[in-house]
Each structure stands twice: as C-alpha cells, then as structure tokens.
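Hi R.,

Here's the chain you asked about this morning:
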Amino acid sequence: MSADTGRESKKIKLKLAFGKKLLDEFAGEDAQFASEPQFRVFPNPLKQWVLETVQSVKNPTFINGSEPIEDQTVLHQGDIISIGSRRGNEDKMKLMVHVEG
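And the predicted structure, written out as tokens:
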C-alpha cells in the first residue's frame, strides 16, 4: 500500500490495524484525520486482502470514493483507500493498494 505523498510503501503479511500513528509514518499530514485505529487489513483464507472497517471512527474510510457497504471488503490492485467526511467534503489521505506475489 502506498500513499501519493511519495513516501515509502508498507508491506503487510498479517492483520494490521492502520491508525493515526502508523499512517503518519507514510501518509503525510492527512494522517491527522485518522482515528486509532481507522481500519484493519488482513489476508482471508482465499489469500485475498481484506479491509475491515472500524465503526467508531471520527471520519469514515472509503474505498474508491465510496463508503463500504460490508464490514469487510476484498481489496483489489489499484483500489484507493481514503478517509473522508460524511458531509461530502474532499477525501483525505489517499492510499493505493498494491498487491505483490
């Protein structure tokens, strides 16, 4: 997963909670809009990567500009994960999914 800030990517091999602290390392100043945790990413039994939303966040997580309908959503190469506002303001902290292997 990489941010469009030009900072480094993060490689994930197990369930990982993404929150303000971790996102600040590579997502730039937009990490300030994240909760702790904001979302989780992990491999499912079919070896697909899944994003799990967290219900108690201040700003919702979006995949490709839409709030996920399910609590868990399979991620695909090139998907954009962002944090937005329920008021329809511009999405923040856009991350692109890059699946290796």
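The chain has one helix and eight strands.

Let me know if you need anything else.
M.
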